[in-house]
Amino acid sequence: MDAIKPLPQVTSFSASVFSFLDDRFRDAGDLSHSPGLVAELRTEISELDQRLAGLNRQLESGLASYASFSDRVGGLFFEVNAKLAHLSSSSSTCVPRSPSDGGNEETTTEHVAGEELPSLAKEVAQVESVRAYVETALKLDTLVGDIEDAVMSSMNKNLRTSRSSGFEEVRLHAIKTLKTTEEILNSVARRHPRWARLVSAVDHRVDRALAMMRPQAISDYRALLSSLGWPPQISTLTSASPDSKSEDVHNPLFTMEGSLKSQYCGNFHALCSLQGLQLQRKSRQLGSHKGENVLFHQPLWAIEELVNPLTVASQKHFTKWSEKPEFIFELVFKITKDYVDSMDELLQPLVDEAKLAGYSCREEWVSAMVSSLSLYLVKEIFPIYVGQLSEATESDLRSEAKVSWLHLIDLMISFDKRVQSLVSQSGILSLQEDGNLLRISSLSVFCDRPDWLDLWAEIELDERLVKFKAEIDYDRNWTVKVQDELISTSNVYRPPIISSIFLQHLSSIIERSKSVPAIYLRARFLRLAAAPTIQKFLDCVLLRCQEAEGLTALTENNDLVKVSNSINAGHYIESVLEEWSEDVFFLEMGTGQHDPQEIPGVENFTEPSEGIFGDEFEKLEKFRLEWINKLSVVVLRGFDARTRDYIKNRKQWQEKKDKEWTVSRTLVGALDYLQGKTSIIEENLNKADFTAMWRSLASEIDRLFFNSILMANVKFSNDGVERFKGDMEVLYGVFRAWCVRPEGFFPKLSEGLTLLKMEEKQVKDGLSRGAKWLRENGVRYLSETEAKKVAKSRVFS
To answer: Which 3 state secondary structure label does DSSP give 293?
Structure first.
């Protein structure tokens, strides 16, 4: 029988032993559990002995492997030493015997240096490379072994249930060893690309260890959150106002103290360190494919674990609010706002300590909350609204479904603006970058469902066109001019009120598109909603012009006013679109970031200079130029009809001039008509387009009179020249109100008169000199043939 061993002295107990005994034996009643404790300790000792035996076997295997490598390296060094000794002996025996043998000695030395040294240098380099490889392999093997041991220890049930500080120390040691291993692998991958198999083998073992370590770390983190009382009761959040932070909101992250707080911070830091390590590994593994692979932003694991239980708890309330989505958005925003400060004050320092670069806890918290909301919208809310639209057959039901859809979009836009304001308060995130906006925008649901975006654009377009149609049918909107001193372009183009109303609808669509978080989605939305709206406006102004032309062929003054107002409206919208095309918001849509899924029936623009509304701009410009020309043609047609008698009276140019009349009687009516029509157009048409119109009209009148009178073989006497000169002066006078030298816009008539007023000898001598003489006398628009024909029409007395 074994002798009973005496108990050790109490003074020899360590602090950990005292702590262990105090936890197990709190009172006399706990002594009855001592047999079970002894059995548990013996089991744990047995397991530790087995692990120790395994470690000893692993150590023996490592030593044997090292011995094998050592023997190989020793053999290589022995060979090198032998060859070096042989080289030394060869050099020493090459002593010069006589001057006649000097050439043989030099030849021998050169032979040895030329053939032996390069091969020796190569072998030495090989030995050094093998030595470095062996040392690196052994070091990595040792580190990976420590990692695997630490991972197995951290998963030991007895070690975990004891809740001792040793468990956390083991995990931190594993993470530290992982970082050291990654640093070595990174150096090897960069300096020794031929050691790819070694790196791959180590990566395989490390990945296997991480595959066990990460789930266990997350599981421990979840259990710790549960013990902290996370998530808090949602009912306490719904009672407070969503627009102001509640002072009595329970935040377990702020109330934890002592060892519990230290334990939570340790767990959070460990998760962040693991994630940072994984990002480093992926960056290294994809380092050879930069430009082909892009590391997408990975959500922060620790923050996701905070949000997930909140999401589950919130969805119990969401199911009751499927017909009141505004409550869903309010609840999510309130939760996000109430806990965002704890992200900055408590968790951000831990992320910085873990050296997880590029991460903001505030941003990650908001992003995770928005992502959970977006996921719920995709799964539960949007399918209901899409179903209502597809199932609605009656116009009233479909109208209600559209209103509900637009209301949901309004809620999403408002929610996005509020949560983005929470992020922008940190001053870290740039909201101008598409990637950042996608992560904190509920409208990012359209990235995966562009068909829903198309449906939204269709509804938005229908809604705007219905409202705009009522404004179009009100005639007063087409006659009253926009009077806004703040808008300089309104004074230039003198647009009717309808153009301002249209811009309000168009601007509303564009403002809503700015909430869409991706450039190509904004462009898609604008092409589907805004571009057809512009086309509808163009159709309206074109229809009004065509109606005026069809009724009276634009002979009535009211029709001229109607067309002038339509041109003003179109030119004003054209100028606004041109101004918008220089805005950054529209310019970035022309940088090549286009929709990966082209829209059937909608052509995509290819040149940045064209802009998103390039086609519509060109159509408006074409409409304007076409109808300016029609106004000119209409006035010319009426003027031509009234000058037929004047043109046909060929004898008047040989008759004496009537001193009582400064202008021919048959021309008075035509000039009065010309002045009346141009005055009406001037009064209603904007200045730029009116200038283009009267210049075109002057050019046509110049061509009409020149061809019908000066080129019609008419004979001019001296009095006839004076009569024609006086008539033309009066004609020029009609246009003098808009320019200083109107005769410059009647080049052929002016130069024809110049030739008619010349003396007979001057004309004959000059024409014989040809085109050069014509240029010297200011005749540039008439050809030599035309000039001779005008000269022949002159009759000298």
So the answer is: strand
**What is the maximum span of the chain, computed from C-alpha positions, in angstroms?**
167
In percent, how much of the chain has pLDDT > 70?
Answer: 81
SS3 state at 579 = helix
- Contact assessment for residue 758 and residue 792, using Cβ atoms and an 8 Å cutoff: no
Angle of helix 450-472 relative to helix 382-391, nearest 10 degrees?
A: 50
Residue 136 tokens, joined: 């690196």
SS3 state of residue 326: helix
Kindly report, residue by residue over 290-325, the tens digit of the pLDDT.
Answer: 443 445 578 999 999 999 999 999 998 898 898 899
What residues have CB less than 8 Å from 286, skipping those under 6 apart?
A: 293, 295
Question: Distance (Å, rounded) from C-alpha 212 to C-alpha 58?
Answer: 21
Q: State the SS3 of 719-783.
A: HHHHHHHHHHHHHHHHHCCCCCCHHHHCHHHHHHHHHHCCCHHHHHHHHHCCHHHHHHCCCCCCC
Q: What are phi and psi of 716, to 5 degrees?
A: -110, 125
Sequence-distant (6+) residues with CB within 8 A of 313 are 231, 234
Please state, in angstroms and rounded to a whole number, the distance separating the CA atoms of residues 110 and 94. 11
Q: Which neighbouring-strand residues pair with 496?
A: 481
Q: How confident is the model at residue 433 (pLDDT cuts 50, 70, 90)?
A: low
pTM of the entire predicted model: 0.77
Cα–Cα distance measured from residue 744 to residue 678, given in angstroms and rounded to the nearest whole number: 19
**DSSP state, 344?**
I
What is the rounded distance in angstroms from the CA atom of residue 400 to the CA atom of residue 407?
Answer: 10
Quick check: 751 and 780 in contact, CB under 8 A? yes
Which tokens is 454 given?
């198309």
Q: Which two tokens stand for residue 121?
A: 């240098």
CB 209 within 8 A of CB 148: yes
The 10 Å Cβ neighbour count of residue 338 is 19
Q: Which residues are CB-neighbours of 780 under 8 A, at least 6 positions away? A: 747, 751, 774
Q: What φ, ψ does residue 290 adopt, rounded to 5°?
A: -65, 135
**Radius of gyration of the CA atoms of the chain, in A:** 47
pLDDT surpassing 90 at residue 636: yes
* Nearest partner of 336 among 223, 422, 228, 445, judged by Cα: 422
Nearest-angstrom CA–CA distance, 665 and 672: 12
Please report where in the chains the tokens 């468990």 appear, as a residue: 167
The C-alpha atoms of residue 731 and residue 744 are separated, in whole angstroms, by 13
